[in-house]
Amino acid sequence: MKDFLIAPSILSADFARLGEDTVKALQAGGDVVHFDVMDNHYVPNLTMGPNICQSLHKYLRDAGIDKPIDVHLMAMPVDSLIPQFAQAGATYITFHPEASLHVDRSLQLIKEHGCKAGLVFTPATPLSYLDYVMDKLDVILLMSVNPGFGGQSFIPSTLDKLRQVRQRIDASGYAIRLEIDGGVKVDNIGEIAAAGADMFVAGSAIFGQPDYRAVIDKMRSELAKATHA
Ligand code: DX5
Ligand code: ZN
User: Fold this and answer.
1) CATH for the stretch 5-228
2) Domain residues of the chain, as ranges?
3) What share of the chain is helix, strand, coil (3-state, %, to 5)?
4) CB-defined site of ligand 1, < 6 Å
5) Which pLDDT tens digit goes with each residue over 183-195?
6) Among positive and negative, which fits the CA dihedral 70, 40, 43, 187?
7) Of 104, 171, 176, whose CA–CA distance to 140 is shortest?
8) pTM for the whole thing?
9) 113-140: per-residue pLDDT in tens?
């Protein structure tokens, strides 16, 4: 099977028991911690900053877990946050091009701090932002909901957008992950994979169920089916 990554979004975790709940999702088979940073400015919600990332990173390492943290910045300005999250243990840092005045500079800054860099596209953000920066990307994140909240429904036009980005990645020859975020569930993950995604964020689908492993196992079997179709 293709190398698929499942990234539980801790936006839907129990914030009063964040470390414990994150470990539970990773021990249940999650590959990557998806960490949503919202500032009540770029998006109408407020979540976590670098200090929480740092504590969580330490908590995971103390628990013997060496899985990456994927920091999704929905905040502006972007550049001042990059070194802080790099220091706080982020492996991936992604940001929205509309939130940075100098997209190329922000991407370079992420790389200079030793992290994997990515651009995030809201459902209405044009793909032309990719035109001159493919060589600086480790991941492209397509949002299939408008950013700000967990538990929203997948916007179907994202499937076509995924196919377009998959073509751009394959044509570029670069090893760039194609990540999807928003409304990913057991019953749609197969068609999302078939459209070209290889990294799947899921918040409410995982944390909204009592048995995280059951959900993640079902997602993996849907992914296996989709790639054998
Ligand atoms: C939304 C966040 C997502 C969110 C997804 O702005 O970027 O990561 O947690 O939640 P679900 O999977 O519930 O749609
Ligand atoms: Zn996210």
Assistant:
1) 3.20.20.70
2) 5-228
3) 45, 20, 40
4) 9, 11-12, 34, 36, 72, 145, 147-152, 181-184, 201-205
5) 999 999 999 999 9
6) positive
7) 176
8) 0.98
9) 999 999 999 999 999 999 999 999 999 9
